[in-house]
Amino acid sequence: MEVIKTISDLKDFIKDYNNVSLVPTMGALHEGHGALIKKAITEKTQNEKVIVSIFVNPIQFGPGEDFNKYPRTLNEDVIFCEELGVDVVFAPNAATMYGISSDENDNVHLSNNYLTYVCPPYLLVDKLCGKSRVGHFDGVATVVLKLFNITQAKKAYFGQKDAQQLFLIKKMVKDLNLDVDIKSVPIVRDKNGLALSSRNKYLDEDGYNKALTLNKMLNKVKELYDKGVVNVKILFEEAILLNNDDKVEIEYFEFLDFNNLEPVNIVTKNTIVAIAAKVNKIRLIDNMIF
Ligand code: AMP
């Protein structure tokens, strides 16, 4: 496996291959990322290479978010990728990605006055995570398009855990006629049902136990749905009871059509139930797609 840090070295590498698949990540890899990587490797065809990018993208973090303290574990991540059979880890820094110098924290202080951004449609951004994370999805779409261009990937793997991101990337691919096949991978959870996330590292024992509320609420919805309850008002009210004593600080708990991200009153196939909440100041997200 090769670890490549510059765009020119990456381009040198891919010129011998007509087929590349990409797994974009911000590192601190866990079995959730592992599921994406394993799927990419399983679906690899002859003369295809699997690239995992590891880049904590400064332009997708807002002021006051956790860019500086986001876990960075490149050495462990490289071992993780090598053991799974990845061909290349692409781990650029911010200066390399954005072509300007970065500060000691690899922060480039870019604004859209200085960079060409990809801005997903406002109506799809101004909901779920985009509502509180202003500018986040512009940063995500911009870096993902850059990574698609740099790697010339024909396939790219994204997790359903970040459902709005997955939705917006598919939309970008369609709207901008990109020749990349977007593959999605179901959420990977730990043994107690907590969706794996690099941010789970911040949770202490109390926080961890509270964080399980997110999945419990989603499971409650599923349990009632399986019994025939489809009315969103009833499902919402029953599920929210599990957050008694305000275990978690709910930012949103919404029922949307995953075809267009519009709110629904009745749960049907392709409804997404999405939740974001803070647990001891740590922001977590989870969802279930019916
Ligand atoms: P991140 O490193 O958090 O930017 O995540 C990189 C990719 O891994 C994204 O497509 C995420 O949706 C995906 N991912 C992260 N956690 C999980 C998980 N628990 N299950 C499935 N995919 C995940």
Folded structure, characterized:
It is a single chain. Strand 5, helix 8 (163-175) and strand 6 (181-185) form a beta-alpha-beta unit. The radius of gyration is 19 Å and the shape is globular. The longest helix has 22 residues, at 205-226. The strands form two sheets. Strands 1-4-3-2-5-6 form a six-stranded parallel sheet, with helices on both faces. It has ten helices and ten strands. It has two domains: 2-185, HUPs (Rossmann fold); 203-282, Pantoate-beta-alanine ligase, C-terminal domain (Pantoate--beta-alanine Ligase, Chain: A,domain 2, 2-Layer Sandwich), CATH 3.30.1300. The chain has helices spanning 7-14, 31-42, 74-84, 94-98, 122-125, 128-132, 136-151, 163-175, 205-226, 232-240, and strands at residues 2-4, 19-25, 48-54, 88-90, 155-159, 181-185, 249-257, 262-263, 271-279, 282-289. Residues 25-26, 32-33, 35-36, 158-159, 161-162, 185, 187-188, 195-198 line the site of adenosine monophosphate.
